[in-house]
Amino acid sequence: MSNTKKQIRQSILFVSAVCVILVIVCICGFLRISNDQRKQLEEHLEDTSELYSNTIQRQVVGDMEILQGMAALLGEQANIDKSILLDILEQENNQNRFMRMGFIDMLGNAFLVDINGERYENINISHEYHVQEVLKGNAVLSDSLQDRYTDKTIVVYAVPIFSDGKQIGALCAVNSTDVFSSIIEQPAMQESYANIIKQNGDIVIHTTKINNSSLTSVYDISFDREDDKDLLKTNLAENKAGSFHFTNVEGAPCLAHYTSLDINDWVIVSIIPESILDSTLTPFRKIAFFFMASIVIIMLLLIVFVTHIIMRSHEALEHLVYFDSLTGIYTKTKFSIMANRLLNHDQGYALIKLDIADFKVINQLFGFPSGDALLVYIAAVLKEHIHEHELYYRSDGDCFGALLHESDPEALKERIQHIMDHIATYELHPQQHYHIISNCGVRFIEEEKNLDTIMDHAAIALKEAKEKAETHIVFYGNELSERLQQIKQIENRMYSAIEEKEFEVYLQPKYSFSTGTIIGAEALVRWNIDGHIIPPDIFIPIFEKNGFITRLDMYVFDAVCGFLHKWDALGYPKISVNVNQTRLLFYRDNYIHNLKSILAKHQISAKRFILEITESIVVENLEVIAEMTKQLHDLGFRISMDDFGSGYSSLNILQSLDFDELKMDRVFLSDRGSNVQKQKEIIKTVVKLAKALSITTVAEGVETKEQVNFLTSIGCDIAQGYYYAKPMQEPEFEKLLEKTK
Ligand code: C2E
Ligand code: CA
Ligand code: CA
Question: I need a surface site. Which of 5, 121, 324, 380 has the fewest CB within 10 A?
Fold first, then answer.
């Protein structure tokens, strides 16, 4: 699940990242466009300032030129009467339409005439700055002033009048600032307007657009950035152009551009509300917004879609991993998860592992669909027998498992037996009866809490149950674990044991019943670990399982060859020796080759050997044995059937296979209770039959005088048993041989 979450998180992260990148690209694009637009606007506004400035300059220069022209004329009539002068000015002004015109004498007394004919005479205005300036001989334009006769704001143009090179006064003209206002209110560009300010920031001419007439300085407006204000100050002082952002009295953000007017210290400030940018930017903004919204929506849909797909595939995968496709019950994976939860909360559980004996055979005999049906049936049986807070699962093939809440071994055994009995009632075929046997390994869950280890232990117990004929339910316990440990130790040591020559070959003599003399011996292996002799019963079954026995048998064969070679050299009777051969050798390609090369190495004839194979192998695979015995016979070996009578012996075997010797098992000879007489008859018959087939009979495990008498009486050929001698080491056996010399 965490994996899926991670997957989903990753895809969401990826999609979100793509989304964010696209949105950022969108925003950047938009910002770029709006920046470009803003720059363009600034450039336009700069042009606008230029335009305003040119218009105003033209106006001022024009007015000045008119005045200067008139001043030149008046200079020629220096002594003209003041009232006549005003008549002339009034008349002239009809063409010029100044608000007022007038003459200022050198004392600063003004004689003025309004455009409507009103006259003001001999008014001393010598204190006015522009008057002082013009009387010094300079043409001037005043700042905006409050008109003393009307409520208008005015500007005064004044030029000196010279007569014969000497200033005799000044000519002045008054104009309402409305003349400039009308210019700067004329929108040069959309909603633009302008103000005229002085270098110190004082506003010279307002537009009526700014109703806030209380605003007397440009520094009173609210600048968006304090830096702009500072820059404005320095730029004004240095007569430089620039721009700034501010918020007007209506709260609208505006862009302003200022540049010198070249009239007095006037500066034109062109203003445009930034809102006009909106009109150009709105379509872009809409497109950008549309894009971003689309991207986000598409991405969201993508996330939903991807999450859905991942969840779906996860569910499908989870089902595959967690539920067995055939039976629909938990898989081992799911079982483990659930089992761990249960085990964390409660105690007194046992884990069982169950499988069917020879399930492969069932599949072969009845077909796979029948095998599958059986598995489905077992799942149903488990379901029926499982209580609350218990679990069950199927892993591969016919392997089932369950977690049972049972701590009493007897009760648990009973429950398992019920399950097994229930499974056994299944009919694989309506006509053919097949008894279904199941095996079960059990592991109580006590201190060990690691489920994997517990499962391993249950599996070991199950394996044991399969191998043991006497019981089908095996509990994993100390005994089993000790044995397993022993097996491990043996397996760890077996290779080095060969190198270290720890395996010793003992010899048990074979005696002729008729003569009582040694006629041969059986080689029997022992494992001498530091003087501690381990009997073959302990390690041979383990080697049979892991295949090491083939190596050991060849080792024994080689050792016996060595003995024979030595005995021959010492001139002892040329006896033959029985060596045990595991059935596994018969399936090895190089078996015959190995035998031959060992014989060749010691220069010993195959005739000196009687190879013992156990009865069980014969039952197992008659064809292979027949073929192999033929090859061995061809080489000169004799073959002995070992352990006859210990298993499912059949007299038929004697007939169908070519044996030279028959070794009757110790168990076969032993007193088996009630029917002693019957037993004796069987042995008698076997010996007789063997004799008829020219097979030598050997009685193994002869321990009593009584047995010797009986076996001699029925004509048994050879004896091997403690009555005569136990298996012994080679030097001891050599002494026996010495005696027979
Ligand atoms: P086996 O081949 O049937 O060997 C005879 C076993 O009976 C030997 O046990 C022997 O010591 C024992 N025996 C002989 N006479 C008497 C008697 O009078 N009374 C009793 N109680 N026992 C007697 P051992 O040596 O312990 O060998 C056990 C089994 O181990 C052998 O049974 C054989 O199957 C296997 N084995 C021993 N050596 C080898 C070997 O080199 N290769 C293979 N493949 N198996 C071997
Ligand atoms: Ca034997
Ligand atoms: Ca035997």
Answer: 5
Instruction: Using the mean position of ligand 2's atoms as its centre, give its distance from the Cα of residue 373 in Å.
Output: 45
Residue type, 531: G
DSSP 247: E
For residue 720, the ligand closest to its alpha carbon is 1
> What is the distance between the alpha carbons of residues 286 and 292, in angstroms, rounded to a whole number?
10
Q: Is the CB of 549 under 6 A from ligand 1?
A: yes
pLDDT band at 93 (very low <50, low <70, confident <90, very high): confident
- Token pair 């399982």 is at which residue? 545
Structure confidence by residue, pLDDT tens digits, 291-336:
888 888 988 898 898 889 888 988 888 898 999 999 999 999 999 9
The structure tokens listed for 155 are 């500007």
722 in ligand 1 pocket by Cβ < 6 Å?
yes
Kindly state if the Cβ of 524 falls inside 6 Å of ligand 1: yes
> Strand 718-720 relative to strand 166-176: parallel, antiparallel, unpaired?
unpaired
CA distance 492 to 448: 26
Kindly list the catalytic residues: 700
Q: Closest ligand 1 atom to the C-alpha of 643?
A: 3
Per the DSSP assignment, residues forming a β-bridge with 350 are 404, 444
| 611 in Cβ contact with 581 (< 8 Å) | yes
- Quick: pLDDT tens for 483-538: 888 889 999 999 999 999 999 999 999 999 999 999 999 999 999 999 999 999 99
Amino acid at 129: Y
Residue 19: burial class (beta carbons within 10 Å; 0-12, 13-18, 19+) = buried
Interval between CA 612 and ligand 2 midpoint (Å): 6
Whole-number pLDDT of residue 208: 61
Among all bound ligands, the one having the nearest atom to the CA of 725 is: 1
Query: Does the beta carbon of 645 sit less than 6 angstroms from any atom of ligand 1?
Result: no
Smallest CA separation from ligand 1 atom 4, residue? 524
Q: Is the pLDDT of residue 382 over 80?
A: yes
pLDDT given for residue 324 in this prediction: 94
Average pLDDT, the chain: 89
Asked if residue 525 has its Cβ within 6 Å of ligand 1, the reply is yes
Q: Which ligand has its closest atom nearest to the C-alpha of 643?
A: 3
Q: What is the pLDDT of residue 272?
A: 86
